[in-house]
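seq:
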Amino acid sequence: MNVPDVFIGSTDDAYTFVVLNRPIRGANSLLTGAGFTARKINDRTVYLLPPTPSEEANEQAGIAMYGLSARTLDVVDLSWTTRWSPQVPRPDPGIRFTLTSTTFQATATTEVARLVLEQHGFARSADGPSYQPATPLGMAHLLGAVVRAEAHAHAYGITVRVDLGISTPDAIPAPAPRPSATVPGRRGAEPAPRRSR
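struct:
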């Protein structure tokens, strides 16, 4: 969550949130103008949309992201609330990613979903049906692999759910001094390359 300039996610209780990891000119007015509420949580400003039908969340997030994209293209959107309405039962996902500050795991329910994961550098764990990166990845590269795999899965009509392990907005963690350089739960990972602008 601390890697890209803009991170969009969802809490388990169906809030959509946006976190800015660097100052972006005009971001506050863009986000609040799109219907987000700014709130201070654990020493960081978080922009929140309460649980709402996915079409509304998608539209409001889209308006905000369109404006922000004029200022940065470093955006990661792993929200499920902009895809499924909290008011209706969610379909069982074909791919489920669990991505927290300490763990990473991917699971697939069909052969096509497994192939999608493998095409994006994930390998089946030796101890079960879950997937991990085939080679150790820095957090920035891991997020990129998840985003690409999610887009690829959607192109095949495979539903994807990304669980961030954040139960409710008050559980959104404080900003880290610097992005974590290793994949959670993996030892010996190399530092992620530094981005320069």
